[in-house]
Amino acid sequence: MAFSMDGKGRATDNIFVERLWRSVKYEDVYLKDYQNGLEVYQGLTRYFEFYNKNRPHQSLEYKTPAEAYGIIIY
Q1: Predicted local distance difference test score (pLDDT) of residue 41
Q2: pLDDT of the residue at 56
Q3: pTM metric for this prediction
Q4: At CA 72, angle to CA 71 and CA 74, rounded to 5?
Q5: How many CA atoms lie within 13 A of 15 on its CB side?
Q6: DSSP H or E stretch at residue 37
Q7: 63 phi/psi in degrees, rounded to 5
């Protein structure tokens, strides 16, 4: 399977994904001592909850994604 970055906006999409994974690695993975796949799954689940509901994003005028996109938080 070959992926093409020729489509409109593809390079920009890649930049956002690279920034996301950099945040994940430096804010969670490199700081934790995960011992197995279950710990990784549970830790990343918690991190993405935090990332989407509690962590302000500069690109969203320091709002969380949940606030910026009107996601209902329970």
Answers
A1: 98
A2: 94
A3: 0.74
A4: 135
A5: 5
A6: helix 37-53
A7: -100, 160
